[in-house]
Amino acid sequence: MIFQIERMSAADITAVREIDCRSAALPWPLSSYEYEVNHNPAGRSFVARDAEGTVLGFLTAWLIIDEFHIANIAVNPEKRRMGIGYALMRHGLVAAKNEKAEQSFLEVRAGNHPAIALYRKIGYEIVSIRKGYYRDNGEDALNMNLYPENYRLFIEKEEHQA
Questions:
Q1: DSSP E strands: which ranges in 65-153?
Q2: Which of 38, 33, 34, 126 is nearest to 74 (CA)?
Q3: Which among 12, 17, 18, 103 has the fewest CB atoms less than 10 Å away?
Q4: pLDDT single digits (tens) 36-59
């Protein structure tokens, strides 16, 4: 599948929210995406779109000093397992590295095995568990870090393959 990744714009928010609603038990409100796109100086939000301009997935993250925090990522359920999630992560991590990020971290549902596998493929490591973190069902969250050495190795691998 051919797609491109670009910064999320206000025009993308409705499509992003729809994907979030189809993907997450606790989707973000529209106002959160509006804030990320229009007002958050730390916000780094991207969308993947196909040749027709349809939003296939999104990544919302925050760059705070030298840390890149993955806040939310989802791919349209019908378009999963096509490399879109990996491409969004790669794009965000490379862009953040270009802005001097040294490490990255995220939280993921303990039962979200496809996402955990994606993050491990990139080099993230599970560092702790937040018991009962998700308020909809009390599921644990795994805190995962991409430490500086793994971040550097990921960027080097991606540059070599480019």
A1: 67-75, 103-109, 125-130, 141-146
A2: 33
A3: 18
A4: 999 999 999 999 999 999 999 999
Return d(Cα 59, Cα 38) in angstroms, integer: 15
Domains in the chain, CATH or no CATH each = 3-161 (3.40.630.30)
CA distance 32 to 35: 5
Residues annotated as catalytic (active site), given as ranges: 107, 119
Does position 162 have pLDDT exceeding 80, yes or no?
no
Residues in the chain: 162
User: What are phi and psi for residue 136, nearest 5 degrees?
Assistant: -75, -35
N-to-C CA span, the chain: 18
Q: What is the 3-state secondary structure (H, E, C) of 46-64?
A: EEEEECCCCEEEEEEEEEE
Residues contacting 56, CB < 8 A, separation 6+: 3, 47, 48, 49, 50, 75, 76, 79, 84
Residue 125 identity: E
Cβ atoms within 10 A of the Cβ of 106, count? 21
**pTM beyond 0.85, yes or no:** yes
